[in-house]
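Renewal narrative, Specific Aim 1. Our central claim is that a sequence can be written position by position from structural information alone. The example that follows is taken directly from our test logs and has not been curated for this report. It begins with the structure tokens describing the chain, in the order in which they were read.
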């Protein structure tokens, strides 16, 4: 059977592409290798699906450090507010949380998946699950998609929406890169982003801080000269292998890039546990409260300054006995302690593997994609959307936003291309 549009991959980008093409009246086939569609979407946002973000467009673009600017023209056609309106039309009410993050009011990612599947059904999009695509043949005027089982389907336009290589049990195993190369595309270096960092520091190995969460701290990645490349103020957590949490995920790609750029085996991070206070006034303040309580133990005087485990850790790090009385603590010690509250430096030596990353960095080069249509500049009738593209955002709804926006454009334009042939 001849289709107008074949969409390969039923993640958020492919689901949106199939819906958009169906809404334009195209005869659409959606193929996925898994038994269910939207498997990554269903586990996204801790099972709640952070489906988009309500910050202004310029902010959204800033939060997509991997080629966010490429999305400028796409956002002028379909953007985060359009995503919100789209889901509301499907009966999915969204609510805003901190940092503009939008979630379904039900708190259930599955409700988002179900709404998309219902829409596909209403549009009579044909769906083939359990059908891994093996290869694609590009001929002038027609594209043929070959399944692993030997079946093949042809269409006027094909949309590749098979995602990146992260969390492969959801189906994203990087199959699409070979098809893109075959079409003449460049794949930029693939690397893990939004990924926990590993460290061989002895306090990590000894699990001294394992499980400790620090709220609203400022974490920086330093270059070899000790200057901050990037700083993120958010929460973080110490783990048995290193560090994780929102601030760490955001810093992770800069660690990967720094290791590559300067050929480093380790990168220095700097942790400011009290980002709202400047170092000198903090020193003066600590000096004053310590000297005001000459008989009290330092541990008790400083109670509440930092989470207790971290306070004790920093005291020990500065060789300060927590039981020492205020009167017996030298100004010099107070100064070094203050410094480590503001700039505790430690080394990280890499990340968890790409398979464990939230997002894949790198992918189909955006230089070879039309920014207003998601059409390949290499093959007529070929379109790309979602994480297979060299676009990646921070956690916070930016990646699903990018998948839905690029999916929408790919679907609309693939349908127009196929129907106008
Ligand atoms: C645990 C986790 C939580 C996340 N939470 C969020 C969040 O809350 N907000 C956010 O913005 N981002 C989040 N992300 C990132 C976001 O989920 C992804 O960026 C997004 O799913 C990418 O969409 P996609 O459509 O490009 O690809 P995917 O969702 O990866 O879908 C690709 C689809 O293609 C199919 N496929 C692959 N190969 C083949 C083949 N050979 N033949 C047929 N089908 C194939 C797969 O089965 C899969 O269904 C999260 C990621 C993870 C891992």
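The sequence written for that structure reads:
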């Amino acid at each position: 059977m001849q289709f107008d549009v074949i969409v390969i991959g039923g993640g958020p980008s492919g689901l949106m592409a199939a819906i958009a093409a169906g809404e334009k009246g195209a005869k659409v086939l959606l193929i996925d290798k898994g038994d269910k569609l939207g498997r990554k979407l269903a586990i996204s946002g801790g099972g709640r699906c952070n489906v988009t973000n309500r910050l202004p467009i310029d902010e959204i673009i800033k939060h997509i450090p991997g080629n966010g600017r490429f999305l400028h023209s796409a956002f002028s056609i379909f953007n985060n507010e359009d995503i919100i309106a789209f889901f509301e039309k499907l009966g999915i009410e969204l609510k805003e949380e901190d940092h503009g993050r939008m979630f379904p009011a039900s708190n259930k990612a599955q409700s988002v998946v179900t709404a998309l599947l219902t829409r596909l059904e209403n549009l009579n999009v044909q769906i083939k699950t359990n059908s891994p695509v093996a290869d694609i043949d590009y001929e002038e005027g027609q594209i043929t998609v070959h399944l692993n089982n030997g079946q093949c389907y042809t269409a006027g336009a094909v949309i590749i929406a098979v995602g990146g290589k992260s969390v492969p049990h959801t189906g994203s195993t990087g199959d699409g890169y070979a098809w893109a190369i075959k079409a003449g595309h460049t794949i930029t270096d693939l690397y893990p982003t939004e990924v926990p960092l590993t460290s061989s520091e002895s306090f990590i190995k000894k699990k001294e801080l394992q499980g400790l969460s620090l709220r609203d701290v400022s974490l920086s990645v330093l270059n070899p000269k000790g200057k901050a490349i990037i700083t993120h103020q958010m929460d973080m957590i110490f783990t048995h292998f290193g560090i994780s949490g929102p601030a760490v995920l955001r810093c992770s790609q800069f660690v990967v890039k720094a290791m590559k750029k300067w050929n480093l085996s380790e990168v220095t991070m700097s942790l400011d546990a009290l980002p709202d206070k400047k170092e000198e006034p903090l020193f003066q303040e600590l000096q004053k409260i310590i000297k005001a309580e000459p008989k009290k133990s330092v541990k008790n005087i400083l109670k509440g300054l930092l989470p207790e485990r971290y306070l004790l850790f920093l005291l020990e790090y500065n060789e300060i006995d927590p039981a020492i009385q205020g009167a017996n603590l030298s100004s010099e010690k107070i100064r070094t302690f203050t410094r480590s509250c503001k700039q505790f430096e430690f080394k990280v030596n890499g990340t968890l593997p790409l398979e464990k990353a939230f997002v894949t960095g790198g992918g189909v080069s955006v230089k070879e994609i039309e920014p207003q249509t998601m059409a390949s500049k290499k093959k007529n009738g070929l379109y790309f959307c979602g994480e297979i593209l060299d676009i990646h955002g921070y956690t916070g709804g930016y990646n699903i936003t990018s998948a839905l926006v690029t999916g929408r454009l790919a679907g609309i334009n693939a349908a127009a291309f196929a129907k106008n042939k």
